[in-house]
Amino acid sequence: MNPQFKKGVLELIVLKSVRDRDMYGYELVTEVSKVIDVNEGTIYPLLKRLTNEHYFETYLRESTEGPPRKYYHLTAAGILYGDQLEAEWNEFQERVCRFLKEGKHE
């Protein structure tokens, strides 16, 4: 997949993935990878930025498999931002699909 396509939609996929339930970083990498191929080096800086922008809150939860895990929880601002991104994405992809179907390549 074109890296620019992935970069453009990654934030939306991350926000939507955490909307239904809180997730820790590696779990989120696994979830997002079901849609687009990503690695930890891509996800963690994005999580840090979204947390700094107050779209996520974090908390630690004990793990039976090692040290406590940092979980990401979507804030009210994060929900609104995710909804806005989704609306923009839907409009964007509809316009692109319509253009491609009409075959106007003049």
Structure commentary:
- This is PadR family transcriptional regulator.
- InterPro entries: Metal_resp_DNA-bind_regulator, Tscrpt_reg_PadR_N, WH-like_DNA-bd_sf, WH_DNA-bd_sf.
- It comes from Sellimonas intestinalis.
- It holds the Pfam family PadR.
- This protein is an alpha+beta fold and 106 residues long.
- It has a single domain, classed as Arc Repressor Mutant, subunit A.
- It is built from 4 helices and 3 strands.
- A 3-stranded antiparallel beta sheet has the order 1-3-2.
- It is elongated, with a radius of gyration of 16 Å.
- The mean pLDDT is 91.
What would you say about this model in short?
The chain has helices at residues 3-20, 25-33, 40-52, 76-102, and strands spanning 23-24, 56-63, 66-74. With 106 residues, the chain is α+β, with helices and mostly antiparallel strands.
Comma- or semicolon-separated keywords:
106 residues, alpha+beta
Task: Give the overall average pLDDT.
Answer: 91
CATH superfamily heading: Winged helix-like DNA-binding domain superfamily/Winged helix DNA-binding domain
Count of helix runs: 4
Cross-sheet strand order for the largest sheet: 1-3-2
What is the CATH topology? Arc Repressor Mutant, subunit A
Gyration radius, in Å: 16 Å
From the helix content, strand content and strand pairing, which structural class follows?
A: alpha+beta
Number of beta-strand segments: 3
How does CATH name the architecture? Orthogonal Bundle
How many domain units?
A: 1
Under the CATH scheme, which class? Mainly Alpha
Taking the alpha carbons of the first and last residues, their distance comes to 26 Å
Q: Could you tell me the strand content as a percent range?
A: 15-25%
Low-confidence region ranges: none
The arrangement of helices and strands along the chain is: HEHHEEH
